Every structure is written in structure tokens, then in C-alpha cells.
Amino acid sequence: MLFDLDPNIRYVAVNQRERIIEMKQNPERPSLNPTETDRMEELIVNPISLEAARRRGNIDMKGIRYVIVRYGTMYELIFPYKHGHLSIGVDLNAKPTVVANTVAKCLKLSV
Fold it and tell me: Under CATH, domain 2-107 is a member of which superfamily?
């Protein structure tokens, strides 16, 4: 489980073909917002953010590896993953690029 990779990982979600197939909260880190807003983020916000970054990256920057969003309460890491994306919520005291690279290495994603 990805929660074991870093104690600062709060939340993990996987969206494949526009369907959420996994959405889990770290039992050690209670949610900072309602579950329904997480669902909307996974179905609408993260796919659009990732697609915009992917299009820009594909022009002349050798693609996209991940996107980091810094919210007021946490970081959100968004990775292209299979036929959709993987989202990971991370505490603000974490180093998001370190967590992103650890996750990418574990899942054998490009970094």
C-alpha cells in the first residue's frame, strides 16, 4: 500500500477511464474535507489539470511526470497512471517532490 511509503501520505485515489476505482484515506490522518468534494476533485479537477499539463508538456518538454497542487491544507500529487490518473494527498510538512519520486519509483513510473 502506498501509505507505507511515507508517513505524510494522507489520501490515495485511482481514476481509470473516468471512474474512481479506489479512494482511501490514511487511517492515521483524518480527512480535512468532505468525501464528496474529494470525489468531484477526482472526477473533474484532477483529470482537467493533468490533461492541461500533459498537453503543454507534450509540445516541447518531453511530456509530463506529475503535477503538484499546493492547497491551503495539503499538497495534491497527480500522476498519469494507466488509463487515467493516481492522486495522492500529502501533508504540508512533507517534501512533495521527494514523495512524488518515491511513489513513481515504487510504481515504476517515469520521473
Answer: Dynein light chain 2a, cytoplasmic (3.30.450.30)
